[in-house]
Structures are given as structure tokens and as C-alpha cells.
Design a protein that fits this description.
- This protein is α+β, with helices and mostly antiparallel strands.
- It folds into two domains: 117 residues, no CATH class; 59 residues, Nucleotide Exchange Factor Grpe, Chain A, domain 2, CATH 2.30.22.
- It is 63% helix and 19% strand.
- The chain has two helices and six strands, in the order H-H-E-E-E-E-E-E.
- The strands form two sheets. The protein has a three-stranded antiparallel sheet. A three-stranded mixed sheet has the order 2-6-3, with no helix packed on it.
- A hairpin with a 2-residue loop joins strand 4 and strand 5.
- Helix 1 packs antiparallel against helix 2.
- The longest helix has 90 residues.
- It is elongated and about 110 Å long.
């Protein structure tokens, strides 16, 4: 072989080797791309599963909370129904003493029912006005010997449940003339 043929054969072999190596590199890249796509599809499927699972969880929690709220309402209403029954019985009597006694028994029953729910009446008459416990519905001139901003009358009492105000009182407050 002459030098020219040997020299021209070397670049041709190198080109063939480069082409084969590129072809092998393309196959490697294609394989990596296919693996990445498969992994992406797997991750997307996991995401869809997790999303559906979370939606089911939210629906289950909403149903559970609704059931708990309904159970609480039922419990309170069951306690109130006997009070309603007593009011109906009290109204069935024509004797005023019997009606008064029935209404007093009903009031005691209501108070007992509220106490079982940790509800307490707060009487504010004669005490300083507290805006956290009462709403002033009117003012009157302060009688002699009564300090300004003292509660003179209650249209209705305040009620608390634990440490929270369930319903503020409606009161008349003393003011200087």
C-alpha cells in the first residue's frame, strides 16, 4: 500500500467510526428520552392519583363535619323538646296558679338544659356597663345615688358559653342629665 492510500483510508475509517458513534449516541439519547418520558408519565399518573385521593378526602371530611354538626343540633333540639312539651301543658291549664307553676317549672327546665350545655345567664342590672357583655338600647338620667354608666334595666340577659359571649344583654344605661 502506498502512503496515499493509507492516509486516505485512515480518515475514511475515522469517519465511519464517528458515524457509528453518532448513531450509537443517538440511540442512547433516544433510549434516555424514552426512559424520561416513561418516568414523566409515571409521575403524572401518581399526581392524578394523589389529586383524586385528596378530592375524595375533602369530600369525606365535609360529610363527616356535616354529620357532626347535625348530631350536635339534634342533641340540643332533643333537650329543648321537653321544654316545649311543658309549655304546651302549662297552656292547657285554665287556673292561673297552675299556669304560673307550669311556667316556673318550664323556666327551671330551660335553665337546667342551658346549664348542661355550659351556658350561663349573666345579670348586669346595677353593675357598670360592659360593652363586651351588653348592648345599650337606651339611656336614662341617672337616679340619685347611681353612678353614670350603670346598668339600670335589662331588656334581656346576657348569656355566655364557657368564656365566650353567646348573646349580649340589651340594657338601659344611666347617663348624667
Amino acid at each position: 500500500m502506498n502512503d496515499e492510500t493509507a492516509t486516505s483510508a485512515a480518515p475514511a475509517t475515522a469517519l465511519a467510526h464517528d458515524a457509528a458513534s453518532q448513531n450509537g449516541g443517538e440511540e442512547d439519547l433516544a433510549a434516555e428520552l424514552a426512559a424520561a418520558r416513561a418516568e414523566a408519565k409515571e409521575n403524572y399518573d401518581k399526581f392524578l392519583y394523589a389529586k383524586a385521593d385528596f378530592e375524595n378526602y375533602k369530600k369525606r371530611i365535609e360529610r363527616e363535619l356535616s354529620r357532626i354538626a347535625l348530631d350536635g343540633r339534634k342533641s340540643v333540639l332533643r333537650k329543648v323538646l321537653p321544654v316545649l312539651d311543658n309549655l304546651e301543658r302549662a297552656l292547657a291549664f285554665e287556673d292561673s296558679d297552675a299556669v304560673r307553676g307550669g311556667l316556673q317549672a318550664t323556666l327551671r327546665m330551660f335553665e337546667t338544659t342551658l346549664a348542661t350545655e355550659n351556658v350561663k345567664a349573666v345579670s348586669l342590672k346595677g353593675r357598670p356597663f360592659d360593652p363586651a357583655l351588653a348592648e345599650a338600647i337606651a339611656t336614662q338620667p341617672a337616679p340619685e345615688g347611681v353612678a353614670e354608666d350603670t346598668v339600670l334595666e335589662e331588656a334581656h340577659k346576657a348569656y355566655t358559653i364557657g368564656d365566650e359571649v353567646l348573646r349580649p344583654a340589651a340594657v338601659v344605661v344611666a347617663k348624667s342629665p
